């Protein structure tokens, strides 16, 4: 029993079929009960109405002609019929009868006298447990009761008819249950089959197998679920590939500085080197240590942003102050490469709601990127644009530009346009990914416009808090 219950609980086809079959049974039982009640009520009412009409008709005829001839005529009318008539005089003596009477008939005749004396009501209407339906009607002569007409109707035909109806309803019900049960089973299989296929597909996805075919037919909820599974599978496959690529790239990025650290430290420890060589090796170790530290810090920042625990100190800040502070930080490195910074200050003070340190981090990442890719003697332009709702900070360089096919991937983690030049011209490819996330946290967005040989323009779009009428 327990195994059967467990089997039912784990089979959606059976559960759905049983649910539909249960609903069908409820409806069938309700309709059967309605048909049964209507038939019984109609049939019994028809028999009783005919009984009372015949009783009253005989009483009316006898009231007009209460003699032996009329009594004999009434009795002969009911001979061989479904009814039995008994005619009594005022003293309740039998004047005529259409069939032989039994003790049960005599009991009802006594009951007839009692009911007539007390209530003047019908004698018997219980068709289910009594042998007869019995009605009575008085016969009047000269305004006085001269006799009584008592009409009996056997209840056996009524019970037989109702039993026949019950057998018919039961037969129809069983046949319908078998037929409908089979149809519902097929329908539930048809409905559940796509779900079973989807279950198998999701199991394959969980195992890392994404090569499957899931038919998408129609536009109902099941088809929408299949489409969602398709989309989920592609997204998982994409993110799994990204994860694998990310881990591979991280491994490469970590291996490079660690190789330098290990190699140069071994040179210092295992060889007799001059002070100049030792200083040179220590400088390389320091640079690679800083590179490794930046990489780890960037990874840590990305992880905290993804987890939603990256802290922000929100306040109203002057955007020009943040940008000029950043320019002063990168100015020396720009000068060392002979890059000219052309800065166009805004006409009015621009205020935004944000984190001064995080926005400074964004501008440093973008300006460092411009410095990496701008050749010696090039220029970097920094300017503002604004409208009623937002301010746009444009940082344009005169570098080699970015191929159009590469633009959609620039802000992805560890993505670099020129991977072969990463050691000389760039970091690990995390700065722009972090910057894009920080800008999104400020309810803004990052745009990148570029063409090969024409430089690159980064546009940081941020919502305004307010703009002063004049620059202070």
Automatic annotation (TrEMBL):
Annotated Gene Ontology cellular component terms: plasma membrane
Keywords for this protein: ATP-binding, Cell membrane, Kinase, Membrane, Nucleotide-binding, Phosphoprotein, Transferase, Transmembrane, Transmembrane helix, Two-component regulatory system
Organism: Ammoniphilus oxalaticus
Database matches in InterPro entries: BphY/WalK/GraS-like, HAMP_dom, HATPase_C_sf, HATPase_dom, His_kinase_dom, HisK_dim/P_dom, HisK_dim/P_sf, Sig_transdc_His_kin-like_C
Keyword Cell membrane appears in the UniProt entry: yes
Protein localization: Cell membrane
GO molecular function list: ATP binding; phosphoprotein phosphatase activity; phosphorelay sensor kinase activity
Enzyme class: transferase
Parts of the chain that traverse the membrane: 168-188
Gene3D superfamilies linked to this entry: 1.10.287.130, 6.10.340.10, Histidine kinase-like ATPase, C-terminal domain
Claim: Metal-binding is one of the keywords in the record: no
Phylogenetic classification of the source organism: Bacteria, Bacillati, Bacillota, Bacilli, Bacillales
Histidine kinase domain boundaries: 249-466
Domain HAMP: from-to ranges: 189-241
Pfam (any one): HAMP
Reaction catalysed by this enzyme: ATP + protein L-histidine = ADP + protein N-phospho-L-histidine
Membrane topology: Multi-pass membrane protein
Gene Ontology biological process: cellular response to phosphate starvation
SUPFAM superfamilies: ATPase domain of HSP90 chaperone/DNA topoisomerase II/histidine kinase, HAMP domain-like, Homodimeric domain of signal transducing histidine kinase
Record-listed E.C. numbers: 2.7.13.3
The protein's name: histidine kinase
């Amino acid at each position: 029993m327990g195994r059967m219950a467990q089997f039912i609980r784990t089979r959606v086809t059976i559960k759905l079929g049983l649910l539909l079959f249960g609903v069908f049974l409820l409806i069938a039982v309700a309709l059967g009960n309605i048909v049964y009640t209507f038939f019984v009520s109609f049939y019994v009412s028809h028999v009783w109405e005919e009984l009372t009409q015949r009783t009253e008709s005989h009483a009316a005829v006898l009231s007009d002609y209460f003699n032996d001839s009329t009594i004999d005529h009434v009795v002969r009318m009911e001979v061989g019929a479904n009814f039995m008539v008994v005619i009594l005089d005022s003293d309740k003596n039998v004047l005529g009868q259409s069939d032989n009477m039994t003790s049960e008939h005599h009991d009802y005749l006594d009951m007839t006298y009692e009911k007539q004396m007390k209530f003047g009501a019908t004698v018997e209407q219980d068709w289910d447990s009594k042998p007869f339906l019995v009605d009575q009607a008085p016969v009047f002569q000269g305004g006085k009761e001269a006799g009584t007409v008592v009409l009996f109707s056997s209840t056996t035909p009524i019970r037989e008819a109702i039993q026949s109806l019950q057998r018919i309803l039961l037969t129809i019900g069983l046949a319908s249950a078998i037929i409908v049960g089979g149809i519902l089973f097929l329908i539930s299989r048809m409905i559940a089959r796509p779900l079973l296929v989807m279950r198998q597909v999701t199991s394959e996805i969980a195992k890392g197998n994404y090569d499957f075919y899931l038919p998408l037919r129609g536009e109902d909820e099941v088809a929408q679920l299949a489409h969602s599974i398709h989309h989920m599978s592609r997204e998982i496959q994409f993110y799994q590939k990204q994860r694998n690529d990310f881990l591979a790239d991280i491994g490469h990025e970590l291996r490079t500085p660690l190789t330098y650290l290990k190699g140069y430290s071994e040179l210092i420890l295992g060889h007799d080197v001059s002070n100049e060589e030792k200083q040179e090796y220590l400088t390389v170790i320091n640079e690679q240590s800083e590179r490794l530290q930046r990489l780890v810090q960037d990874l840590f920042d990305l992880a905290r942003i993804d987890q939603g625990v990256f802290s922000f100190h929100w306040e109203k800040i002057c955007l020009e102050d943040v940008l000029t502070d950043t320019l002063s930080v990168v100015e020396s490195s720009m000068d060392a490469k002979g890059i000219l910074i052309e800065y166009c200050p805004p006409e009015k003070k621009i205020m935004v709601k944000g984190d001064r340190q995080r926005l400074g981090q964004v501008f440093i990442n973008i300006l460092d990127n411009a410095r990496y890719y701008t050749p010696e003697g090039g220029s970097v332009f920094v300017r503002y644009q604004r409208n009623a709702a937002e301010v746009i900070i444009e940082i344009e360089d005169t570098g080699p530009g970015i191929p159009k096919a590469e633009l959609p991937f620039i802000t992805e983690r560890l993505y670099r346009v020129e991977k072969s030049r990463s050691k000389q011209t760039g970091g690990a490819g995390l700065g722009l990914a972090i910057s894009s996330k920080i800008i999104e946290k400020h309810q803004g967005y990052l745009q990148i416009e570029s063409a090969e040989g024409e430089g690159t323009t980064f546009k940081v779009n941020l919502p305004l808090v307010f703009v002063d009428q004049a620059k202070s």
